[in-house]
Amino acid sequence: MRNSTGGVVAGAVFVLASLLILVVTQLIAQAAWQDPPYDATFNNISDLGNVFCQPWSDDQRFVCSPRHSVANGGFLVGGALLNAGLLLIRPLWKRTRLGLASWLCLFGGGLLWLTAGYWPADVNEGLHLTAFLWLLLAQVGLMLAGAGLSPAVPRPLRLLAPLFGIVGVVVVFAFLGQQYFGLGRGIAERITVYSVSVWLALLAAWVVWRQGAQTSSG
Could you tell me the pTM of the whole model? Predict the structure, then answer.
């Protein structure tokens, strides 16, 4: 792989900004919950984006998110930035079919947030739940990334990618089967949903660090 270009570094910044926006907007949205307060171990992420105040889902938990527009806006902006970043960091993957397949599958990581933000669960639950399909696609991308990434990417990052993907797939199917490993529904969901964003953020952080090191030595 050639030395990082300005485009790759910009892409890495987009990926990092995506994760930051997702986390911050969700914290802002959950802080507005009053009765009941938001519980990250119990509530789904998508509860933050629900538009209406009402008993919700099979357990009829009461969901009321006054700042649902902040959460949904964060989902949309975060997802768009994640996929924009992926477009720019394409040189980090091999120019092979496997590299291309891994890179393309990872776009599911941004599409899941875009889907969740555009179709809140209590507005169109059917389309909202397709976010899990995009999530599974992205986790396949992670599993392929171990062999699909350029050898210039540090080996620990290449090894972590399939590990994150496997854990994410196991947890998503357990989550859909209402098995939470004693962690609570909210934590289990976050482990699987954030598997893609967190690994990409680690990759992006390495790109930014390497650019800084090259600039200092140059």
Answer: 0.93
